[in-house]
Automatic annotation (TrEMBL):
The chain crosses the membrane at residues 14-32. It comes from the Eukaryota. The keyword Membrane applies. This is Transmembrane protein. It comes from Morus notabilis. Keywords: Membrane, Transmembrane, Transmembrane helix.
């Protein structure tokens, strides 16, 4: 042997590649959703503080 592994049909390798790409896509979507959630939460807190400050001023 010359150090190369015997490679079988391309089907299983392609399926593994598609699973890997799909998992990456799902992770990216999840990260983006989490960032959006945090951003909206921070904006909401900021708006609440501004609203409270405006109410305190006569």
């Amino acid at each position: 042997m010359n150090g190369e592994e015997f490679s079988g049909p391309a089907g299983p390798k392609l399926v593994r590649l598609l699973y890997f790409v799909g998992a990456g896509f799902i992770c990216v979507v999840g990260i983006n959703k989490w960032r959006d959630f945090q951003r909206k939460s921070m904006l909401s807190q900021h708006d609440q503080k501004l609203h409270q400050q405006q109410q305190k001023q006569p």
